[in-house]
């Protein structure tokens, strides 16, 4: 699997937003559901971070190593959108840095 050389936005395009399944949520999501991760106090301790410094809307730089746990390919005649591939990964190691001060410098 080739490594991307630059950051790419994972935001859904307008058509995908309309098609996105949202059980019980108001509005449509901007990003795919499976790309969201959650951290609790236990993970903040492991990362040596203070959770009280986290603010909604803050930006962090996430470095992660993930192990591929599943790869599936489908080219079924019943699949009208053509061949599809799904790769699942488990994040095993990660670190987080704040990007808020760097973003403030850009403004």
The whole-number mean of residue pLDDT values reads 81
| Class of secondary structure makeup | alpha+beta
Principal-axes geometry comes out as: extended
Strand content: 25-35%
Using only CA atoms, what is the Rg? Answer: 18 Å
Spatial sequence of strands, sheet with the most strands: 1-2
Helix content: 10-25%
- Please tally the helical runs, counting DSSP H or I stretches of 4 or more residues: 3
Q: Could you give the distance between the termini? A: 36 Å
Biggest pleated sheet: 2 strands, antiparallel
Q: What's the number of extended β-strand segments?
A: 2
Poorly predicted segments: none
Helix and strand run: HHEEH
Structure, explained:
The protein has 3 helices and 2 strands, in the order ααββα. It is α+β, with helices and mostly antiparallel strands and 107 residues long. A two-stranded antiparallel ribbon has the order 1-2. It is extended and about 50 Å long. The mean pLDDT is 81.
């Amino acid at each position: 699997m080739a490594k991307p050389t630059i950051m790419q936005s994972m935001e859904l395009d307008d058509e995908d937003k309309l098609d996105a399944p949202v059980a019980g949520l108001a509005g449509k999501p901007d990003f795919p559901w499976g790309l969201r991760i959650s951290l609790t106090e236990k993970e903040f301790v492991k990362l040596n971070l203070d959770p009280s410094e986290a603010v909604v809307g803050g930006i962090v730089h996430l470095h992660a190593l993930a192990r591929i746990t599943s790869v599936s390919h489908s080219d079924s005649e019943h699949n009208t959108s053509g061949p599809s591939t799904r790769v699942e990964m488990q994040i095993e190691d990660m670190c987080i840095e704040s990007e808020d001060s760097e973003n403030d410098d850009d403004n």
